[in-house]
Amino acid sequence: MTRITRRSALASLLATPALAQAEWRPSQPIRIVVPAAPGGTADISARLLAPYLQSHYGQNCVVENRSGAGGVIGTSEIVRAAPDGLNLLLGNIGPQAIGLSLYRSLPYDRTSLLPVAGTVRGPNVLVVHPSVPANTLPEFVAHLKANPGKLSFGSPGVGQSPHLTGVWFNQATGTEAIHIPFRGAGPAAVELVAGNIQYMWDNLTSGIQQIRAGRVRALAVSSADRNFTLPDIPAARETMPELAQFDVNTWFGIFVPAATPRPIAEALNRAMKSWHETEEVKARWREMGGVSLYGSLEQYAAFVNGEIEKWGQVIRKEGLQLDAG
């Protein structure tokens, strides 16, 4: 007969995973900082995630837009925030990958944030105002060449994916245009529809509604292949030899301050896995022409690091450098 001592009973309890360490849960409200204006994919992702986390944890979850400086302002706020799981950044390819090489000086670096889980990824789409006399990308390039430096293109901010997509496009095609940065994709799209700018490389995930409504004309997507939501719109690299290597996908996801304890990051990652599995989220990504970017902590970190390296090479090759702010 085995004698059960107080010590052995305690050891048995501690060996039980559910009792050894309880799942982290927030005891106060959560905030998600979006480093861009309302209306873009980052904002859409955050406002889709916030009510789920609120329901999941039973704590208020608010979205705060902190736009400006290509995402640097909002990112910096979370870098400085308490690493307690209550301060989340809905980051993106701009400040979390491109900006790390594009800007000469930043108040943070690649080690300042811990990647938790992605939300969505998708291509950018070249959209033009209906007044632009071009129905194909080669026709548009010819129009740009006939009017060097006269057309303007918008973006959600300097250093964001649509900006660098436009820079790469102009370099590859030997065209010139005036870049006009806005404080988010939403404001840029408003100006495009109004005819105050002539074109932009918009995130397909946020620009699809304007295309479907006929307010802008789509000429190409930036990804290597066509997108399932716009099967008749070619990939840019299909259309011209100069664009044979053209391949850009933008992406979004949650980050927390680097010092956040791993159990907190793991708990948030598990909550986001459940969120991704809901029919509401699956349907929204399909509607937006995006693809789920969920992965484990390690998978998401590897993805982000790969993007940092990719864009670092592109930016160094082109000799692009800007001052932050």
Structural overview:
The protein is an alpha/beta fold and 325 residues long. It has two domains: 28-122 and 250-318, Bordetella uptake gene, domain 1 (D-Maltodextrin-Binding Protein, domain 2, 3-Layer(aba) Sandwich), CATH 3.40.190.150; 123-243, Periplasmic binding protein-like II (D-Maltodextrin-Binding Protein, domain 2). The protein has helices spanning 6-15, 17-20, 41-57, 72-79, 93-102, 137-146, 161-173, 185-193, 204-212, 236-239, 262-276, 279-288, 297-318; strands at 30-34, 61-65, 87-92, 113-128, 152-155, 178-181, 199-203, 217-221, 249-257, 291-292. Strands 1, 2, 3, 4, 5, 6, 7, 8, 9 and 10 form a ten-stranded mixed sheet that branches. Helix 7 (161-173) links the parallel strand 5 (152-155) and strand 6 (178-181). Helix 5 (93-102) packs across helix 13. It is globular and about 65 Å long. The N and C termini lie far apart (73 Å). InterPro entries: BUG (IPR005064), Bug_dom1 (IPR042100). Belongs to the UPF0065 (bug) family. Keywords: Signal.
